[in-house]
Amino acid sequence: MTALLQVSALYAGYGAVEVLRGIDLHVNEGEAVALLGSNGAGKSTLNNVLCGIVPTWSGRVEFDGRDLTRAHYREVVKAGLIQVPEGRRIFPNLTVLENLELGAFTRARDHRAANIERAFALFPRLRERARQIAGTLSGGEQQMLAIGRGLMSEPRLLILDEPSLGLSPLLVEELFVLIRQLRDGGLSVLLVEQNVGQSLEVVDRAYVMENGAIRFKGLPAELLGSDELRRAYLGL
């Protein structure tokens, strides 16, 4: 099977500080993959390298057969590699509808109206609050908006960076149901999470990062079946 995203021997960091140490990772078309690890493991740095925000020191990033190793972030978005960042990062002074419209600024602009309807179908609460200022939404509603905005660009691969962070248990349950629906609908997803148990329920494969390197990888059942991994890295 040909990988949609292929990361090979990737090194990166900030200034003289090395954060990523030889990352090898891939995501196939229509596959959901979890990237797990504690705070400081390098997960968000890897996301930002993939999206062209943090430069690569060495190694290679290929997306749909195209070399994006040193591509500008606008080119990454145009290719269909879209990140929903940690902390949502919506535009708080704009309305819900305006936030969604900005999601189609670089890609899928011609389908904006249809994709707004798709977002509203996935998140009926956003339709109810379409004219509301986004900064007045609850935390769960802001996360819905951030994901809806990401979907506006018709991503080939959607990176979800800590989407359950700060959400109530009920909203977390709803979120993981949505992730499963997106995967079942054919969307490729890279789920970056600390919520290990629920992440492994909705993905096809998983990687575990520690100190900027991949320490474990495999099927969810394989990871959960390793006593060492459960104790040392997954907290289970």
The end-to-end distance, rounded to whole angstroms, is 32 Å
Helix content: 25-40%
Q: Averaged pLDDT, please?
A: 89
The secondary-structure element order is EEEHEEHEHHHHEHEHEEHH
Helix tally equals 10
SSE diagram, text form:
Layout: E1 3-14, E2 17-28, E3 32-36, H1 43-50, E4 58-63, E5 66-67, H2 73-79, E6 81-84, H3 96-102, H4 112-122, H5 124-128, H6 139-151, E7 157-161, H7 169-184, E8 188-193, H8 196-202, E9 205-210, E10 213-218, H9 220-224, H10 227-234
Helix pairs in contact: 3-6
Which terms would index this structure?
236 residues; 37% helix; globular
Your description of this structure?
The protein is of the alpha/beta class. The chain is 37% helix and 27% strand. Helix 3 (96-102) runs parallel beside helix 6. The mean pLDDT is 89.
Task: Summarize this structure briefly.
The chain is an alpha/beta fold and 236 residues long.
